[in-house]
Amino acid sequence: KKKSEDAINDIKELVDFIYIDGNHDYEFVKKDIELYWKLLKPNGVIGGHDFNHYSVARAVVEFCNKNKLHAKNWFFDWYIEKPNTLLG
Fold first, then answer.
1. In this structure, is the dihedral angle defined by the CA atoms of residues 27, 56, 9 and 41, taken in order, positive or negative?
2. 27 burial via Cβ count (<10 Å: 0-12, 13-18, 19+)
3. Which residues on adjacent β-strands are paired with residue 19?
4. 1, containing H or E segment
5. Per-residue DSSP letters for 12-74?
6. How many angstroms separate the CA atoms of 41 and 58, rounded?
7. pTM for the whole structure
8. How many Cα atoms sit within 13 Å of 80 on the Cβ side?
9. Cα 20 from chain centre
10. Distance of alpha carbon 63 from alpha carbon 48, whole angstroms
11. How far apart are CA 14 and CA 44, in angstroms?
12. pLDDT by position in tens, the chain (length 88)
């Protein structure tokens, strides 16, 4: 069990799928998305739970707006598909 900013160091290659369900405070969600987005392969998917929490939805929507992306949600889950053009 590790904090996400520590666990990221254990991932040595790009991945196809990332699921975030940690601390639901805005700053933590925002940081997790920004940190882990860099480890996602093109056409990969990053998602998470509790989109019904304002702080989670805010962080997801702001990230999408900033990067010209579109989040999708299904019940309480959300996800973003990474375009084939590497955004970072």
1. negative
2. exposed
3. 47
4. none
5. -S-EEEEEE-S--SHHHHHHHHHHHHTTEEEEEEEEES-TTSHHHHHHHHHHHHHHT--EEEE
6. 24
7. 0.89
8. 26
9. 6
10. 13
11. 9
12. 788 889 999 999 999 999 999 899 999 999 999 999 999 999 999 999 999 999 999 999 999 999 999 999 999 999 999 998 755 5
Closest among 3, 87, 6 to 46, alpha carbons compared: 87
How far apart, in whole angstroms, are the C-alpha atoms of residue 32 and residue 78?
14
Q: What is the DSSP letter of 80?
A: E
Residue pair 88/82 in contact by the 8 Å Cβ criterion:
no
Q: What's the CA gap between 49 and 30, in Å, rounded? A: 14
**Encoded tokens for 35:** 């940190």
- Torsion sign (Cα): 47, 7, 27, 14: negative
Strand partners, 43: none
